[in-house]
């Protein structure tokens, strides 16, 4: 199975500049139609699209016990795993096609 490591640079603009500022970032992974109209996977940071790609075989996403996100095909088997660049503070499965993670900055 493929493992895709999400690059640290997606969080670069969110680093806290002083004490009391943002200490975590919300990352959402979703299988749905992406901006070009094809079926694919979207990666959103604080609600803003940080990356997306076409994946006609993707059907759902699954949160693993280790805080990784598995992209599954129509048969329900993992196509690949997405691994985040920071420690996952909180994670939840919002729907069959959507997972939300809070990462430590």
Query: How many strand units?
Result: 9
Tell me the fraction of residues in β-strands, as a range. Answer: over 45%
The value of Rg in angstroms is: 14 Å
Distance between the termini: 28 Å
Structural class: mainly beta
Helix content: under 10%
Q: List unreliable stretches of 5+ residues.
A: none
Q: Kindly state the mean pLDDT as a whole number?
A: 89
What is this entry, summarized?
The protein has strands at 2-5, 24-33, 39-45, 48-54, 58-63, 69-73, 78-83, 88-95, 98-104.
Describe this structure in words.
By secondary structure, this protein is mainly beta. The chain is 0% helix and 57% strand. It has no helices and 9 strands. The chain has strands at 2-5, 24-33, 39-45, 48-54, 58-63, 69-73, 78-83, 88-95, 98-104. The strands form 2 sheets. It has a 5-stranded antiparallel beta sheet, with no helix packed on it. Strands 1-7-6-5 form a 4-stranded mixed beta sheet, with no helix packed on it. The radius of gyration is 14 Å and the shape is globular.
List keywords for this structure.
four-stranded mixed sheet, mainly beta, 105 residues, five-stranded antiparallel sheet, globular
């Amino acid at each position: 199975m493929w493992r895709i490591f999400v690059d640290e640079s997606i969080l670069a603009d969110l680093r806290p500049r002083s004490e009391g500022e943002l200490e975590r970032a919300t990352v959402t992974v979703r299988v749905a139609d992406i901006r070009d109209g094809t079926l694919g996977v979207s990666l959103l940071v604080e609600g803003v699209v940080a990356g997306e790609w076409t994946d006609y075989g993707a059907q759902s996403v699954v949160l693993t016990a280790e805080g990784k996100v598995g992209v599954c095909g129509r048969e329900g088997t993992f196509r690949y795993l997405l691994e985040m660049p920071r420690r996952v503070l909180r994670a939840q499965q919002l729907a069959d096609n959507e997972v939300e993670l809070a990462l430590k900055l």
